[in-house]
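Researcher: We plan to redesign the surface later, but first we want a full-length starting point. Tokens attached.
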């Protein structure tokens, strides 16, 4: 794998693939220099096997899901259309009644 040291913080990164599963301890140590004190850090990681790659859906499965979604949404869409039509009728009726009332008031 590759390595990288951040130029701003000095954080060191390494790409590494462990040879087997289990608990691994990653230990980093810096022996120090004339300008810096020695330093070390450690962290544990647990390596497990990756899950198997999912299999792509077959066209039949996709069609089954799409048809079930359509069957679920169709009654909702029809209900919404009916509600909108009823609301438009009520608004038109209200406008008609208000015009009649305004005509009677202005006479």
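Model: Full-length starting sequence:
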């Amino acid at each position: 794998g590759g390595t990288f040291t951040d130029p701003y913080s000095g954080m060191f990164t390494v790409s590494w693939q462990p040879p087997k599963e289990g608990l691994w301890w990653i230990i980093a140590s810096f022996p120090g220099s004339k300008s810096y004190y020695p330093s070390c850090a450690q962290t544990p990681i647990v390596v497990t096997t990756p899950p198997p790659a999912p299999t792509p859906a077959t066209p039949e499965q996709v069609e089954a899901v799409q048809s079930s979604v359509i069957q679920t949404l169709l009654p909702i869409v029809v209900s919404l259309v009916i509600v909108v039509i009823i609301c438009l009728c009520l608004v038109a009726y209200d406008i008609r009644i208000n015009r009649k009332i305004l005509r009677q008031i202005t006479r």
